[in-house]
Structure formats: C-alpha cells, structure tokens
Amino acid sequence: MALVGLRRNLCHLCDFQIHRALAVLRSQPVSHIHQAVREHLCYWFFALRPTPSRVRSHHPCWNNFHSENGSKTQPAGQLVSPRVHDWDRLEQNIKHADEQMFYRRLNDFTSSEEVLSFVSTLETLPDSGAAGALQRIWEVGKKDDAGRLPEEILDNHVFKALCFRLEREAPTLTNTGLVRALQALTLSHVDPQTSLLENLVAECQNRLQKGGLEVHHLCILGESLVKLQGPGCVMLEQIIAQLQGEELEKFSPEDVVAIYRILQACPEKVDQHQAFLSKINSFTLSVVYSLSPKSISQVLSALVALDQTQALPLVIKLGKYMVRYIPRFTSGELASVLEAFIYFGYSDRFFTRALEQHVAALCLALNPEVVSKITKYCSKKLIFSKPILNAVAESFVCHSEKFSPHQISELIEPFGTLNYLPPNTPALFRKLETMLVTHFNHFPPKTLLKLLHSCSLIERHPVNFMAKIFSPYFLQQLQGKEPYLDRLSLAQLTQLFLTSILECPFYKGPRLLPKYQVKSFLTPCCSLETPMDFQLYKSVMIGLIDLLGARLYFASKVLTPYCYTLDVEIKLDEEGFVLPFTVDEDVRKRVALCIDGPKRFCFNSKNLLGKEAIKQRHLRLLGYEVVQIPYHEIEMLKSRLELVEYLQRKLFSQNTGLHW
C-alpha cells in the first residue's frame, strides 16, 4: 500500500497556506467529536514525531503545526500514556485493524469541516483512507440533491491537498484506492476536465486494459464512469465484457447490486446484455438474504427499468424477504419498492399486513410521494385495506398543501376504485374541493377527469365542476394535439354525464354533446365494467334453465340504451309473469341479474368494486330490478338442486314481484 505523509505533501504546497487553514479550524467551537479526535489521535501524532532513534526529515512548519494545535513538543522519553503498548501497532501506517478504526471515526463525523480537521491531525494516511475521507466529505457535505459540494469545501486547503496527493500518486495507488478516489470525486461533481480526474481515469483505463482489476474494482469503476462520461463510454463496454467473463461466485452482494445499477443506466442496450442479465437474475436468488433494504430497493428499480418480467421468481423472493425491513426503508426506497410491485403485479398478504402497520404508525409523517404510491399500489392490486385508506385520508386532510396534483389524484382514485368511504369523509372531500377550487388550472386535464370520475363512483358527485368539464374549452384541452379523444376519457365523460342526469337532478349546467358520448361502457381495452366470469355464468345459466323451463326466458349480455351491459335480463309483464326475451311488447318490468365473479370484488374481499357499485346504482335508478348473484354464494352450493332453490329465492322473493 502506497503511503505518503499528508503533512509532508502539504508543507511543499506553499500556495495552500497551511497556517491560515489550521487557524480557521482552530477558531471553530470544539464539538464532542473534535475532543474525541484530540483525545485518541494525538498519540498517533506525537508518537510519530522525530526522535534521536528515528531518522526522518520534517519541514520546520510542522513545528508550528503542532503548536497551532495547542500541543507542546515533548521528548519521547517524557511521553507517558496507558496506550504506550499500542504505539508500535499504530506506527505501521494504519494496518487492517487500524483502518477499521479509521473508518469508524470517519462515520462519526457529521460535517465536512470535522472530517477535514480529523484528516489534518494524521501523520500518515493510506491511499484508500484518503479516498474514504473524500467520500465521507461528500456524504456529509453535499448541499443539494445533485450531490455538489459547497465552494468553501472545494477551496479548502486540506481538501486540495488530498486531491493533489491522489493526482501525483495515481500510478502508485492501490486498485482500491484508485477506484474509490475516482468514485468520491465523481460523486462530488468535481469538473471532469480537471487534470486530477483525467489522470485517475487514464490510470484506470491502463489497468483495465491489462486486466489488473478485480470484480469489486470493476463495479466501482463502472458506476463512476456512468456518472462521469455517460452510458455510452467505451470503457464501460470493456468493463461489462470483463464482468461477463468472471465466475459468478466471485461476485459479492454489493457487486451484484452495482451491476444492476450499471445496466440500469443503459436500458437501450438491454437486449445486448440480456444473457448476462439473466445469469445475474438467477444468481441474485442465492444472495437475497444478504441484501440490505437499500439494495433491495435498487435491485427492484433496475428490474423495472430493464423490463425483466421473466425475473418474477426473483421479485417474489425479494418481496417475501423484505417484509421484515419495511420500517427501515427510506421514503424513496419504499416508493421504488411499491412502484416495482405495481409494475410486476406482485402482492403478498404478509407484505400488506406489514405495510398497514407501518402506515398506521407513521401516517402523518410519511412523504406525499410515498402516500400516493401506497394508495396506487392498493388500487392497482385491488387491496381493500381500511387501515391504509384511513391513514392516507387523515394524512391528506392534515397536509393537503404538500401534495402535487398528480399525487392528489393517485391518493383519491383508490377510494373510488375500491368503493370505500373513510371515517373522515366529510373533512376529506371538503379539503379536496378546496384544493380543486384553488388549483384547478394546475391539474392536467386527464388527471382531473380521472379524479372527478373516481369521486362519482362513491357518490361524491363533483357538481361544482361538471360545467367546467363539459365545456368545449376543457374538452379541447383534454384532446390536446391528438386527432380525437381516447376511448377511456370519452367513457368517463359519458358516465359523469349519466350521473348528472340520474343522481344530480338539480344540476342545470351544460350537457355533454352527443359526439363525446360512447355507446357502451364494456370495451376490450378501457372498460368501465368488468366482463362476466364465463364459468360462473355457465353454472347460473344451467340453474336458470332448470328454474324457468327453457333458455327462451332470459337473455345474456344485453346492451342497454344507457351504455351498461346486463349479464342476464329477464322481462316481466304487468302481472309479473316471465316473458320470452324476444318479446318487446307488454313488457312492464325488467330484471337485471348481476353475476358477480371474483374480479368484480376487491382482492380477497366481499367489497364490490366502485365501477360495479355505480352500475347497479344506475340500473336501479333506470327502473331495473337488480338481483345480485355473487360468486361466494354460488360456491357454497353443493348440488344442482341447491342452485335452483337458491335462484328461486333470489328471483321469486316478495320484493321482485316475479311469478313462476
């Protein structure tokens, strides 16, 4: 390991003005960390001073350096300490055990100034330690999300000395010191055109071509080059090629995660690297239990970015393992996990239960992005979780001003989708209406339409906004530059218009023009109805034939003039007798059978979805006698006779008025 006395480097840099830098550091308040550094590390410093038995040349300025740190020069024989037996070990230039103590010290610091002050007390520093110090300076000193260091840190004399040393000693640095130094400077957003970075990159390229870098070094270098030169750099292809030739057993869990991050940076080349990626996906299954919460989040994000739908076994294993770590995820990491689960269509009851506990405990402290992702996850997977929905409703009421229009939409839509009203419903929708009135123009047209349509599903009708969304101006905005409006938007507009007629008779504003109205809500690509479960329909049809005597007495999949499609329709005359479905005269009443399969309910629940609830509500308002046939009641029947008796009770009760 190449060791260079940092002090000796500094004293040859006259432009660094060491005395002034140390005076500035000395003038700052001494924190408990500074005191710890002085207490434990000054022994390193004094033990390494020149003695008669040790021949070492020092610049005179180092005598001043000692005095500026408030220390008096003492003969070696007069230095008495309980740690005298540790001196010989510490003088070996911070070997393995000492490096661990060095990094523990670095991790204790909470500001760049503390790290620089700590470094300035060291007699010697290994190259990996110098790189580690730079990295810690970046971790605690970055001033914005981009990770840039403040100018006062970049101009600091000790920081410059660290950089100067790395530049001068690049050819003699260890592989670890070289790649970590490049990583730290890249993260700090140091100008890529500086001679320091150019020298480090050139040295890395030289060692790469000679094949002298191990797997871990290749991974660190690859990530640094992605940030420094972009995913198209030639060296990155060489790194990936070398990684492909390595045995997977040599990859540590950290290396695997780094490879995912590297490949995620160049998704356009995923086909080129798919064979390697498939091997990594399979290998990762064996190291899942070694991954940290942060690593799990990064792997899932990469799988989404690289469209690894074939890696579902890995997603499932990650999902099962990470349940215990939900409280340890940061807001951003949890949002990435939820986005991945939405993308891959994964859900797990243990994960949902852990998520419920986490949300309930931190409902008011959760980041708006996480709150919206949680509700989006519940909505996409049709997870009916009262604890989660109640918590996010409370969060919105208390912190509505922190939510963006898109986040508000993602938060409110699940209530309509899952057909649920929380305990604080009045406060929730008062707050929502206030936000819409105040920021109406900030909502993208399609986002606004989805939001208002979701409200109507749970009978919170947006009467005050109907005139605006039916106006030609809004419809033009909704269409944008497209030649026509998309099918889903037209269906949502039509259902809102039907709602205004059936459920809001007091609404007297503009109506939706016929050219914007659809004929059916049941379409293959963007349906507002759930298609009928065919197997369930076959069972019910057999029972109806036995009950009514012939297939002639009921019709299936009937499209009404009101856009809804009936699963089964039965016609009655004025006395309540069943008519053949071909008869259109003398029909006095129509019975709509809703044969509701599992997909019309929330997942593992008997709670009907919002789009099915509004359909049954509208059919009743249109004069239909709605008879619901839910799948969980059919599944309880053990014979054909029980099925006929069940249908007879449903159809020929006193409420329906049917006669057999």
Explain how this protein is built:
It is a single chain. With 660 residues, the chain is mainly alpha-helical. It contains 32 helices and 7 strands. The strands form 2 sheets. Strands 3, 4, 5, 6 and 7 form a 5-stranded mixed sheet that branches. β3 and β4 form a beta hairpin. α7 (112-120) packs antiparallel against α8 (127-141). The chain is elongated and about 105 Å long.
Mean pLDDT score? 82
- Distance N terminus to C terminus? 96 Å
Alpha-beta classification = mainly alpha
* Number of separate helices: 32
Low-confidence stretches: 1-94
Strand content: 5-15%
Please give the radius of gyration in angstroms. Answer: 35 Å
Q: Work out the helicity level.
A: 55-70%
* Strand elements, count: 7
Q: What kind of sheet is the major sheet? A: 5 strands, mixed
Overall form: elongated
Keywords: Kinase, Mitochondrion, Transferase
GO molecular function: kinase activity; RNA binding
Domain RAP: 591-649
Subcellular location: Mitochondrion
